[in-house]
UniProtKB/TrEMBL annotation:
<protein>
    <recommendedName>
        <fullName>4-hydroxy-7-methoxy-3-oxo-3,4-dihydro-2H-1,4-benzoxazin-2-yl glucosidebeta-D-glucosidase</fullName>
    </recommendedName>
</protein>
<dbReference type="InterPro" id="IPR017853">
    <property type="entry name" value="GH"/>
</dbReference>
<dbReference type="GO" id="GO:0005975">
    <property type="term" value="P:carbohydrate metabolic process"/>
</dbReference>
<dbReference type="InterPro" id="IPR001360">
    <property type="entry name" value="Glyco_hydro_1"/>
</dbReference>
<keyword id="KW-0325">Glycoprotein</keyword>
<dbReference type="InterPro" id="IPR033132">
    <property type="entry name" value="GH_1_N_CS"/>
</dbReference>
<dbReference type="GO" id="GO:0033907">
    <property type="term" value="F:beta-D-fucosidase activity"/>
</dbReference>
<feature type="signal peptide">
    <location>
        <begin position="1"/>
        <end position="24"/>
    </location>
</feature>
<dbReference type="GO" id="GO:0004565">
    <property type="term" value="F:beta-galactosidase activity"/>
</dbReference>
<keyword id="KW-0732">Signal</keyword>
<keyword id="KW-0378">Hydrolase</keyword>
<dbReference type="Pfam" id="PF00232">
    <property type="entry name" value="Glyco_hydro_1"/>
</dbReference>
<dbReference type="GO" id="GO:0008422">
    <property type="term" value="F:beta-glucosidase activity"/>
</dbReference>
<comment type="similarity">
    <text>Belongs to the glycosyl hydrolase 1 family.</text>
</comment>
<keyword id="KW-1015">Disulfide bond</keyword>
Amino acid sequence: MGAATGVAAVLLASLAILAPSARGLNRGEFPTGFLFGAATSAYQVEGAYLEDGKGLSNWDVFTHTHSGDIDDGRNGDVADDHYHRYMEDVEIMHNLGVNSYRFSISWARILPRGKLGGINSAGIAFYDHLIDALLQKGIEPFVTLHHFDLPYELETRYGSWLGAGIREEFDHYADVCFQAFGDRVKFWTTFNEPNLFTKFAYMLGAYPPKRCSPPFGNCHSGNSQQEPYIAAHNILMSHAAAVDNYKKNYQAKQGGLIGIVISMKFYEPLTNSTEDIVAAQRALSFEIHWFLDPIFFGEYPKEMREMLSSNLPEFTPAEKMLLQNRVDFIGVNHYTAIYAKDCISSPCELNTYEGNALVFATGEKDGVRIGKPTALGGFYDVPEGMEQVIKYVNQRYENVTIYVTENGYSEYNNNNMEDMTNDTGRVNYLEGYLSCISSAIRGGAKVRGYFVWSLMDNFEWRFGFTVRFGLYHVDFVTQQRTPKKSAKWYRDFLTGSGPMGEVQTLRAYS
Ligand SMILES: *[C@@H]1O[C@H](CO)[C@@H](O)[C@H](O)[C@H]1NC(C)=O
Ligand SMILES: *[C@@H]1O[C@H](CO)[C@@H](O)[C@H](O)[C@H]1NC(C)=O
Ligand SMILES: *[C@@H]1O[C@H](CO)[C@@H](O)[C@H](O)[C@H]1NC(C)=O
């Protein structure tokens, strides 16, 4: 990558929009049964935050009590109003031609008070209707149990993931979902990006329960050097218990698969100094190995044990036993590659996402960016990073089956819909990343699905509604959904019905 990447980015940016097949990207390159979808999460799209017996979630309370921590001060009270408009949204997916939809269940909608209260039947009914409507249209539900939001009562009782009592709560919630939906849901993931949200929640103090300590931030309370690892430990054991339950009690009769989704930046050394090369490995360890080494090898990575010593919990023999249940697949959320600079040999700013690895991440080398910037700081269009990260996971984790569960491109919101729907940057991005997935598959990686983040513009956590990730534009006043150029491009790719469709058909028959 490096210099060559910069050239590639310039080339990409200067190409006019071409139909997918014109660049040699063809659905036929992907294995049969490959899932092509789009993704959302409950808090980001559902709205209806007080309706039909739903309990308050940690994010409902956080966005109301800490609106200053959200760029536009807004919240997900209404979001995309998907709770009331899900039939229209299923129709949109049908038009798009996807064969899968990745969404998350709102824990607080199903179990408003956790284990203590009863099951909210209206919550079950909502997901029943959604799942049935998807299946009617030939769209496979791909379900996340935990995508950042949980019942507020559990946040107050356990500090969310800090108290070990949360493990039984998650196990119970997962069991309720397997029982209610597992006859129709064949793809489950326990957690979305636990390696990312624990840092934002317990190290940087940017997500609820907003805990941290200097130099990472100034929160009311917390310990940035320790709590992310305690929370992660409870998450890993919650994950393991849910996988154990699914494998023992549901998998044989329901015939589904279960995995976990990890956020994966790809780190390139800033220079070819030994220090930076080792720093990039360290950053990958703190990003990827932190969760996947315990799941595959029953142990935290060596680098983390050495650097964190007693701040990193240890697995008891009983915990190691539980971890031995293999996941059926790994979900990879990948958006960007970035350079890693060593902070041991020379001091640098450490109150960042990579700070605990003593790494400083930067998108620039000698004034040249690693790829075209997007609306999110530190996120660049570097399609080769996708191939690298897939190869990396494939090699380290024994040829595991991979689903790319998120990949997408953000733009700053301006209120000009014509401009927002003319999203050529997103089309270039998706085309580049899909080509690199295709290349990784040719190289032997077992990738079996791909989900664009996101189906539609939505509430983007601490950025509120200031950035847009959707294939569909959403007008948050009227709730009107409008396909962007990228939606049309994706549909052409999936159906071969675009301007190049005839060519593809001819090729298929020649
Ligand atoms: C790598 O290091 C060598 C000297 O050790 C230098 O000449 C070369 O330019 C460096 N390459 C990159 C890509 O930084
Ligand atoms: C992974 O796949 C490669 C190539 O097919 C094979 O050589 C290797 O033994 C596999 N590794 C494991 C751990 O299954
Ligand atoms: C869309 O954007 C491209 C540049 O990215 C521009 O060349 C084109 O004219 C725009 N089309 C419309 C309809 O605005």
